[in-house]
Structure formats: structure tokens, C-alpha cells
Amino acid sequence: MSDSRGRLRHQRWGVELVRRYFAPVIAHHRPTELTSLVDAYIKSSVIADDIVGRVATRSHRSVRRIRAGFAEQLRRLPARESESETESESEATTDADVRDLVDVVRSLRGELTPADRAQLLQRLILSVVGFTGVALEWVVLLGIQHGYNTPAVRPDQLRSLVRETLRLYPTAWRLVREAATDHEIRGVPVSKGEHVMIGTHAIHRSGAVWDRPWDFDPSRWERLADDQRRAFLPFGKGAEMCPANGFALKALEHLGYLILHGYRGTVRIRKRTPHARTLLAPPAGWTRLTKSG
Q1: How many CB atoms lie under 10 A from the CB of residue 292?
Q2: Residue 199: Cβ-neighbour burial (10 angstroms; 0-12, 13-18, 19+)
Q3: pLDDT at res. 58
Q4: Cα(208)–Cα(210) distance, rounded to whole angstroms?
Q5: Cys bridge to 283: 74, 151, 254, 269, which one at CB 3.0-4.6 A?
Q6: Whole-angstrom distance, CA of residue 291 vs CA of residue 134
Q7: Which of helix, strand or coil describes residue 237?
Q8: Distance between alpha carbon 106 and the CA centroid of its chain, in Å?
Q9: pLDDT higher than 60, residue 84
């Protein structure tokens, strides 16, 4: 994943690594055409548009083309056994019947066209690969800058490091929710059905909730208060919570530990501020890793 000079370029390498890490649960033993579409979508949309944001017009055209390709591949796949059963029989389907994200979108109930399922597959790939990959770059970058890349680092330290990273730099830096009822927010009327933007990045740095909110302090997670737990929203909350919530945290702890425990690192960045697009990514620059002796 490194370039010709052995550097891991920010806004890219984490996504590429997580793509490989989660390959079995994205498209498990699927046709080559389908897995090639996954890679094309990650390169032309997740990286180029949602993270970097430099070729939006071209990437939007390619996304439609890739979505049509996903829809065609979903049509060609052989029917699952549960799809030929009656509705009452299919209710007995277990998690063991779902091998990957392709199975997830195919097993959804309702009048969904292949195009609908293809769009859902793209969104799941963005959640699993895009958000987790960018978060991994932040974890490694901050881990190196704050002395966590050492053979002495412990898994419990990575747990706190990951959560503090997601507090300061939540990849989902703003959320949009639809108002369920008429209400007010700080005196501003909101009507049912209107969309409300929630600034996750601002909530995570609120002095009303967090002590020394701008400081990087993983130790705060050893003594978290209830209001701080409620205000921690890296994956959203409620029915529209990001589906990558649980296993993304475990993946970040696992991969972060392997990298910081096993490698020495240096970081070079061009700006101090993060890069905000659909995802909140590290500034342009690079990380170099060398195997610990």
C-alpha cells in the first residue's frame, strides 16, 4: 500500500488496508466481476469523492455506472434457499446464513429492486471500509505522535486511544436526522419532517461536557461520566446508527495494536487542520512505518 518511496499516503492507505481486512465479509467467494466493482467503487467514490473530494463530477458518473453493475451482478447470483421459502419459513433464517454484505442486502424484506439493493450495498461498503479506514489513519497518526508506537503498548491502552481519537476526530463529523415531531432547539422551532444537522465534531469538543475538551487525553476514558457517554456519537445513535459500530471499534483496536506494537513510525503532514469532506480525514501527508527490532 506504500508508494515508491515507502510512504503510506494519508486519505488512502487506511481505506486500502481495511478493504483487505474485511474482504471476507464484504463479498465472500463472489464472482470476480462483483469484487472488481467493490474495488472500483472504493477507488472512484469512497477515496476520490467522500474523502479527497477532488473529482466529484467524474466520480458521481462512475458511481451510477458501478451501481448499475452491482444491480446486474445481484440479479445473476443464484437464489438463496430462504428466498424460495414462504415468509413464515424464512423467519427462521439465522445469522449463519449471512456470510457477507451481499447476503445482507439480498436478505432484506420488502419490495426492493436490484438497483435499491445495489445502492444499499454501496452505503454499507462506505460505512465499513470508508469510515473505519479513515479512523485507522487517525489512530496510527495520533498513536505515533503521542508515543504509543512501542512494543510495550498494551491492548487496553489501544482501547482508550481509539475512543479518544474518535472523540477529537470523528470521521462522521456531522449527522443529519429527520425531526419526528414539532419541537424547539434552543428556541429555534423545528417542524416534523425537517432535517436537522448535528455537529458531532462540536459536541465532542464541548466544554460543557468534556474536561479540557481540546486536549488529547486517552486516560479520560478510564473515568467517563454518564453525560460524556451520552455525548459520544462517532457512529450516531438510535435506529440510524452506523452499522459498522461494534466491529469497527474492535477492528480499530486490533489493527491499531498490531501496527503500533510492531512498527516504529514517523509522520509528515502538510497542514494542521483535518480534511473535511463526507468524512473527516487526516491532513494530506504521509506515514512511514519500519518493523520494530
Answers
A1: 13
A2: middle
A3: 55
A4: 6
A5: 269
A6: 22
A7: coil
A8: 22
A9: no
Give the N- to C-terminal CA distance of the chain in Å, as an integer. Answer: 22
pLDDT tens, position by position, 197-249:
999 999 999 999 999 999 999 999 999 999 999 999 998 887 778 776 788 89
Q: Average pLDDT over the chain, rounded to whole?
A: 89
Where are the extended beta strands (E) located within 93-245?
A: 175-178, 183-185, 188-190, 195-198
- Number of C-alpha atoms within 13 angstroms, CB side, residue 15? 28
- In 3D, which of 99, 98, 97, 45 has the Cα closest to residue 67? 45
Q: Return d(Cα 275, Cα 93) in angstroms, integer.
A: 42
Nearest to 51, CA basis, from 130, 113, 125, 159: 130
Q: How far is CA 13 from the centre of its chain?
A: 14
SS3 of residue 155 by DSSP: helix
pLDDT of residue 213: 96
Residue carrying C-alpha cell 477532488: 54
